[in-house]
Amino acid sequence: MNTHDQARFESLYSTYITELKLQGKSDKTIDCYARCLRQAAVFFDTCPDNLSTDELKRYFLFLVENKSWSAVKIARNAIQFCYKHVLHRPWTWVDIVKPPKIQVVQDVLSPTEVALIINATRKLSYQTYYLVTYSLGLRLSEAINLKVSDIDSHLMRVHLRYTKSKKDRFVPLSQATLFALRQYWCTHKHPELIFPGGKPPFLRNGHSLVMDKGGVQKAIKLIAKEIGISKNVHVHTLRHSIATHMLERG
C-alpha cells in the first residue's frame, strides 16, 4: 500500500471505529469488525473504500475457500457496515452460498471424568474456575467475569450480567460451590472480581484484570491428557457436560 493509500485507510479506519462505538456495538464486535477491515485492506493492498462488485466477489471467494462460514459472515457484515455508516454508499449485496455443514458431535465428560479433571488441577484459581463453570453451567467468559456482587448467598443464586444473549439471568448456587468460591476468594480478597488476573493488585493502567482465557483453555486440555482422557476437552465441554448430566438425571 502506497503512502497516499495508507493515509486514506488510516482516516477511514478511525472513522469506522468511531461509528461502531456510536452504533453501540460491543467491544468484541468492534474488535472483530476492525480486524476484518484491516484484513480486506491487506488483501487488496489498498484502502478498501472504492471496491467494485467483482473485487468484493473475489475477496469473498477467497474467504469461503480459506475461512470458516462464521468468519465469512462477520467479514461481510463488517464491510457492509463500512459502506452504510462510513462511506454512505449503497451496498451491493454479495450473494454467498453457505457450504454444506458437517455435524460434529461434541464430546461429553462423565461426572467421574469431570471430578478427575477438577481434582487433578493443581492451580487453585483454575480448579475453582472449572468447578464453578461446571456446577453453574457457565460459558467461558461468564465465569471469568464473575464479580463478588453477583454472588447472592442469601437466595443461593448467581446473577449473570451481559450474557451472550444480551439478557441477564440467574442460576442456582449450591452450598459446595459457594464454599469453594469463598475459600478461593479469601486467597486474594479482590474487592470486585472473583477471578482476578495477574499478580496483586491485579491492575493494568488503573483497570482490574481478569484471569486469562487462553490460560484456562490450554490448562484443561493438558490436564485431561495427563490423566488419560482422550476426548477433545475444552472449557465449554464442562458446560455441555453438566447440561447432559441434568437431562440424564431428569
UniProtKB/TrEMBL annotation:
InterPro entries: DNA_brk_join_enz, Integrase-like_cat_sf, Integrase_catalytic, Integrase_recombinase_N, Integrase_SAM-like_N, Tyrosine_recombinase_XerCD. Residues 104-250 form the Tyr recombinase domain. Keywords: DNA integration, DNA recombination, DNA-binding. It holds the Pfam family Phage_int_SAM_4. Transmembrane segments: none annotated. The keyword DNA-binding applies. The keyword Manganese does not apply. GO terms for molecular function: DNA binding. SUPFAM superfamilies: DNA breaking-rejoining enzymes. GO terms for biological process: DNA integration; DNA recombination. PANTHER family: PHAGE INTEGRASE-RELATED, PROPHAGE INTEGRASE INTD-RELATED. Belongs to the 'phage' integrase family. This is Tyrosine-type recombinase/integrase. The lineage of its organism: Bacteria, Pseudomonadati, Bacteroidota, Bacteroidia, Bacteroidales.
